[in-house]
Design brief:
436 residues; mainly alpha; 2 strands; globular
Length: 436
């Protein structure tokens, strides 16, 4: 047993090292693309970007419908920035950009910095942002090379809708049409209607949809070869590589819910919970492991101190919310992140979900003996609260988008309730008897 665990850890380490090498090489490649077409295409969208400096909400009065203009401007400037003072290696590892400093109160304005850079206005200082991988540039740079940010937003709306539709179709093909319905309901908790307008806030949504599609396509193979652990390891690595620390937990909980729904009959309730925690640990291993590789690579290749900066930031982001004890801060953060859902829209959405479950109960009845099957989903529904406890400072400061993590809870609870209903085979038998 001990030897098997060491072998698995060794394989995971090799995968993380290989992933870091591939990710680093991909970033190097896209940084050799000419930036002039990217600057020109970004300039075409500058009017739209500047219009959102003061109001970036898709629905006025609802902060959680933000378009992410603040972070998107950082991403675009990272994509178009080029300095003769730095090699491609230095740019990839440290991610430099110019900054227009406006004084103590308004010192950090990425939107104004991007606008000044594109207009050729001299910028008084250069800053770096080496803590993240910035893997989104592997996609963003080629897109900006070809077209404008306006067009990318339109493409986002079409592609996200297409991928969501493919997930629904894939679930139905797997005889999980009930889960497909609650999946669509759960998308509303991710503020799906505003995600297409944001680069930063659509990353985790893209990853979650893509992961579920891969999972549905290769589910049988992953199960037979017992390689689901590596799937979740890679899921964590991909999230660390592309995301900007927005609401990463959905790339674990949503695919894990799908896995449990398709395989909860393997090994009993205790075995299911053990596998669930095991796959969660593998996701976290991939997430933190690849992130750490970015810090290590940067310091090794450039002799800098990114590890020290990253650890200081990690300590701050996982500290308690400002002005609170650890426990008091937790309840404050939960309250903040639940506020966006105190709306009649979500009362209606929850009501629709309850109606779907009630219809299932009428059709197939409730199998109370299946209560053990619902336990893993209840645990998964609590994952967001664990995240808020661990990352209090970050979740308190950025509740406008970290609240989307809460989408994990209704999806998991709905899926668990579905497991309390009769199986699809039992429902079919009941319908046949009624027809006779």
């Amino acid at each position: 047993m001990k030897k098997r665990w060491w072998l698995m850890f060794g394989n995971d380490l090799v995968l993380i090292l290989f992933g870091a090498a591939v990710g680093f090489f991909a970033l190097m490649l896209v940084h050799f693309l000419p930036v002039e077409p990217m600057r020109e295409h970004a300039f075409w969208s500058l009017e739209m970007i500047e219009n959102e400096f003061g109001n970036e909400l898709s629905v006025t009065g609802y902060p959680a419908t933000m378009k992410g203009n603040f972070t998107d401007c950082l991403m675009i400037q990272h994509a178009v920035y080029r300095s003769e003072n730095h090699s491609v290696l230095e740019q990839v590892t440290h991610m430099y950009r110019g900054e227009s400093y406006q004084g103590e109160e308004d010192g950090w304005q990425p939107g104004r910095s991007l606008s000044d850079y594109l207009r050729g206005v001299p910028q008084p200082r250069e800053v770096e942002y080496g803590r993240y991988w910035h893997g989104y540039l592997v996609v963003l740079k080629p897109l900006l090379f070809l077209t404008s940010f306006n067009t990318i937003r339109l493409l986002n709306s079409a592609l996200l809708l297409f991928l969501a539709g493919m997930v629904v179709a894939g679930l139905c093909k797997k005889n999980a049409s009930a889960l497909a319905k609650v999946f669509l309901l759960a998308l509303s908790f991710l503020f799906f209607s505003s995600s297409y307008a944001s680069l930063s806030l659509s990353i985790c949504l893209y990853l979650m949809l893509a992961l579920i599609l891969v999972q549905l396509q290769f589910d049988d193979r992953l199960s037979k070869k017992k390689t689901y652990g590596y799937f979740f390891l890679l899921a964590g690595m991909a999230t660390s590589y592309f995301d900007f620390l927005t609401y990463p937990l959905i790339t674990l909980v949503f695919p894990l819910c799908v896995y449990l729904y398709l395989h909860d009959d393997c090994g009993g309730a205790k075995g299911t919970v053990v596998r669930m925690f095991g796959y969660s640990a593998r996701w976290l291993e991939g997430y933190l492991g690849l992130w750490a590789m970015k810090w290590i690579l940067t310091d090794l290749l450039t002799g800098s101190f990114v590890i020290r900066d990253a650890l200081d930031t990690l300590g701050n982001r996982t500290d308690s919310a400002d002005g609170y004890s650890r426990i008091g801060g937790f309840f404050s953060v939960v309250w903040k992140n639940m506020q966006p859902y105190a709306n009649w829209c979500y009362v209606l959405v929850v009501g629709i979900g309850a109606a779907l479950l009630a219809a299932g109960m009428v059709r197939c009845g409730v199998r109370w003996k299946n209560w053990r099957k619902a336990v893993p989903y209840i645990i998964l529904a609590l994952y967001p609260f664990g995240w808020f406890f661990a990352a209090q400072n970050h979740s308190a400061e950025h509740w406008q988008f970290t609240c989307r993590i809460m989408a994990c809870t209704p999806f998991a609870l709905y899926a668990g309730c579905l497991k309390m209903l009769g199986t699809s085979e039992e429902c079919s038998e009941i319908r046949k008897e009624e027809e006779q």
